[in-house]
């Protein structure tokens, strides 16, 4: 929505997301957030109680938006809608990525919540895709979910490096648009033209497990 159409509470939240992402939670100033939202500092406290309360509201909103987007992307129609929303409102989308990236870089208490939730939701999406036939079966859906989540999180935590590697000055819509098709090509078609590397790895792991049964016991204990 245009800023004028948002409630004061929503304007404060969106302003806080921007400030927390840019400055970090500790350095972000409530008065600066209030000024960006065009409200008084007293109104910020009225709605959220404290800076910590404001951050919790931002965490819930950003994480909820990210999870909705992830679920939408599991269907062709939903993916089209996500692309339309993103291209029409790229700044907000980018601010949410920056917010999560900042939390993870700072090692904040909410970082683990972000990472755990993204991995758990990724696993749920993978399992649902396998069940309905839209995704191929996996030897280890949980580990696959971790890999997918880590790939996504790298885009947030390594944003400047990713952008420079593709010839851009900073992360933004152009970078994400360029990454979109190669990412989907990899997930859809795979990378290798045959199963040589897969079979080699399977054989190597089988040899390791044959000489060290503790490997399987440790894996089963972790999964359970």
Automatic annotation (TrEMBL):
Keywords: DNA-binding. InterPro entries: Homeodomain-like_sf, HTH-type_TetR-like_transc_reg, HTH_TetR, Tet_transcr_reg_TetR-rel_C_sf, TetR_C_25. Residues 6-66 form the HTH tetR-type domain. Residues 29-48 bind DNA. One of its GO terms (molecular function) is transcription cis-regulatory region binding. The keyword Nuclease does not apply. PANTHER family: HTH-TYPE TRANSCRIPTIONAL DUAL REGULATOR CECR, HTH-TYPE TRANSCRIPTIONAL REGULATOR RUTR. This is TetR/AcrR family transcriptional regulator. It comes from Cryobacterium melibiosiphilum. The lineage of its organism: Bacteria, Bacillati, Actinomycetota, Actinomycetes, Micrococcales.
């Amino acid at each position: 929505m245009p800023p004028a159409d948002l409630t004061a509470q929503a304007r404060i939240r969106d302003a806080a997301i921007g400030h927390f992402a840019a400055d970090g939670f500790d350095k972000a100033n409530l008065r600066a957030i209030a000024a960006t939202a065009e409200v008084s500092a007293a109104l910020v406290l009225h709605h959220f109680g404290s800076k910590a309360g404001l951050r919790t509201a931002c965490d819930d909103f950003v994480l909820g938006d990210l999870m909705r987007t992830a679920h939408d992307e599991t269907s062709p129609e939903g993916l089209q809608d996500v692309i339309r929303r993103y291209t029409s409102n790229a700044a907000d989308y980018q601010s949410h990525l920056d917010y999560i990236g900042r939390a993870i870089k700072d090692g904040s208490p909410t970082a683990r919540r972000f990472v755990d939730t993204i991995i758990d939701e990724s696993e749920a999406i993978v399992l649902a895709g396998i069940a309905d036939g839209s995704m191929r079966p996996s030897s280890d859906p949980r580990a696959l979910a971790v890999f997918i989540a880590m790939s996504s999180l790298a885009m947030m935590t390594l944003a400047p490096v990713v952008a420079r590697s593709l010839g851009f000055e900073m992360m933004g819509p152009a970078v994400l648009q360029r990454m979109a098709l190669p990412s989907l090509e990899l997930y859809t078609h795979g990378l290798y033209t045959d199963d040589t590397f897969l079979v080699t790895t399977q054989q190597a792991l089988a040899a390791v497990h044959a000489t060290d049964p503790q490997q399987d016991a440790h894996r089963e204990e972790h999964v359970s």
